[in-house]
Records
---
Amino acid sequence: MTARTPVLGASDKLTFLLSLIPYLMDHDNVTVTEAAGHFGVPPERVRDAVRLIAVSGIPGETHQYLDGDLFDIHWDEFEDNDRIALTHLVAIDDSPRFSAREAAALIAGLQYLSSLPENADRDAVASLMAKLTRGASATPTQLAVSSPDSDAAMTVIQASGRDGVQVEFDYLNARGENEHRFVDPLRLESVDSDWYLRGWCHLRQAPRTFRLDRMSDLRATTEPVGSHDAGLVLSDTLFQASDEDLSVVIELPSSALALLADYAPDRATTPVGGDRVRTTLRVAHYHGLKRLVGGLAGLVTVVEPAEARQVVAEWAAAGAARYDEPTGRA
């Protein structure tokens, strides 16, 4: 018996046509064989679709198909060399495009993702960046995003997670104390430019969060992770409260509350006039307020306790004093 070529319905032909046109737009000049190999179809099906593209388009204001209302191809290349090159596009070019700034921002984000160990050498990321560049309304600004400083640490942690073994490292905590930790790695997360390891700390016998740039002498061990992590559920917030945390009362605009969601679990507030509210934070140490207040400069006021106010005031005064120091210039 002779095998029959399946008869395609109108919807199948249209689906293939709508897939083929973007492919041809992304590849300026391809052979029929290359296109057929990409879609996994016989070459003759590609040729039929190309001939259909050449009589497709959108009628103009007169509701008739005039010159410029249809797609067109390089016919000599197609008939003599079996190559496909679109020479005229209709309708598709009228679709909304990213501005140059929007495309540049997206490309910068993709560059950052491709620099991470788990996304290194990803052809899909490179292809998407190329499409954004071609599809923008203007040429995007050329940006270069540096690799995160924590690449080496993330590589060790990810390998340990795959192998199911603990990591050990020396850790400088928020109190300025060095401790040696053994941790079952569970998750890597980022907040702005900082990367964090979330895992089960064997010293504290509880889930803990560690900043990668505070680790030193990080290495994988041969000790397997505990059996707890099968039933361990990490919270949605990056920082978890503990019984050892300290309470601090602050005032800030209500619009800024969302920025402190990880530090104020219950989000209870008291209006104090205007748009400002008062709420209570949970911090591991008063020195941790320095980074928080510095990130919201001019918005946060530490109310109590007095020790917390003093820590932040002394830190701010020390920073301001540096501006009064002589620069050494004549």
---
Amino acid sequence: MKDPAVKRKTKDSEQYSKELVLGILLTIAILDHTRLFFHYWNTNPGNLESTTPLLFFTRFISHFFAPTVFFITGTYLFIWSKAKSKRQVCYGLLRLALLLISTELVVNNFLWTFDPFYRTIGLFIIGALGLSIGLLAFLQFLPEKFLLVLSLLFLIAHHLLDGIPVTGKSPASVIWYILHQQKYIPSGEYLFIVNYTIIPWFALLSLGYTTGYLYRRKWLLATGIVLTCLFFILRGMNWYGDPKPWIRQETFTKTVLSFFSVTKYPASLDFICITLGPMFIVLHCIEGLQNKLTDFFVTFGSAPMFTYLLSTLVIHLAAMINMELTGGSWSALLITPDSYQQGNVLSDYGYPLGTVYLLWLLFLFMLYGCCKFYHSFSSKRTV
């Protein structure tokens, strides 16, 4: 029987570095989720009139998680597909897509709301990843170079669609929302949320898939530098790359925040450049790095779905228990469409950001123990 730590040490440096980056970014995503449930309710970190540099930064660094997940998933799918026929790849991707979409609708939506009536249904990262993989199942039949060019075109040119706003609840409108336009769709007592629009997120997944054979340490550094520089050029010119241009503010600090306030929903070209660029540079720098600290993060990154879902459960449950212990009602944190409205029962709920960071550290160590147990249990089943 092999110890999970020994198994990790036998991994090639490329896989280890990917899991390390995923682990680091998962811990940052957990910080942002802790902020959502424990900081002052309905606070918008991107509102320059009310935000602080630390609050803005706390949200901004979480942006790196989703693009990294989509791109690295694409590279994993490329490696998995190499020994299979196109038809086998198609069936395998469709099964994975169905599993992810089901997980989003049944599990992830419940963990975010704890509402047994599912009155809030969202298309978030897991569902968007599933839809993107389902689309890849069919488009992978295209020649690789053509699919690569198509993916780049999606990323670069999707802002040309920004001028086509759609309203209503017709099937065609809903399809458009899923493809390109973030939308909150109220319907009676239900609320449907489309956050992760498919065009740019599929392009990221497809880029990882079509450039899998190019994945080299030197390539990562060069691409990372190019993307980071491209962000500063595009953002500095302020005419293309993000639907929300930056504006000179009354203070230098707020001007900097405005400059880096890029659009995630839908993912803008500026957003992709400033997240993927530094991530590639980090992947280049950490390859071959391994010690107790990196093993700590790899424990999270080697089981990202388990870590993500468990962390959401732990954070939401802890918030409900805290609400009950501090004189409120745990049912206030059953998230419904009313929870998104200003002036709701949660308007006076929340803690300073320093408290959020302390809670985040507590959650990390709790989750670390659970993830270690999960790895130990899963390794016993495979021996």
---
Amino acid sequence: MPERAALVTGGSSGIGFDIARALGEDGYALTISARKPDKLEEAARTLRDAGLEVHAVAANMAEEEDIKRVAREHRERYGRLDVLVNNAGVGIAGPIEQTDTKRLDIQLDVNLRAVYLMTRECIPLLKQAGAEHRRAHIINTASIAGKIPQPGLAAYSAAKAGVVALTQATIRELSNEGVRATALCPGFVATPMTEWIKEHVPESEMIQTSDIVAAVRFLLSCSPNCIVPEIQFVRPGDMP
């Protein structure tokens, strides 16, 4: 059994990949999950080539059985869980009146329902870690859209607002068990997911994944007496 272990969904690229790499560098054995097997295995190979311990599990976060399988494989592989990073997400832009139910459902399922289900499946292991060192942590990638809802992103904004609320409820349920939770609420981050906006917001002017990684490392360095419910990341001039 490793001394520390972490599970990162949406771990094949962008924010999730960089968080996973940082956790691996900091001594965590890793499970990473993403929907596309080829892309996930490429990410895992990159991490393994850097000397990190990585288990990759391809899964669709819209499917409950896939979520259960990821949690189960992590438990069977490592036997412990100190950090859960619910990072998988999807955004589909469009006005409410033109959004069909399928596009609504996939955003609610991946961005909110999956966070709830993965958290539920991982709570027993997180409680065990919390009883051991009182530093178990759930990190949920929300969005600044969950704090400042955006036109054209109504479903995404609503789901991410739900993640913020879920995070706060989780704190109230689990903090006495040594399990903390934080919602990360970034604006545009320079990742493949924001390719659609780069004509209007240059990548060089976006929040960087290194900013998110620095925040995660800060959270994990806090004493057991310190809970940070959320962190907002905004660009200069973007404050409401």
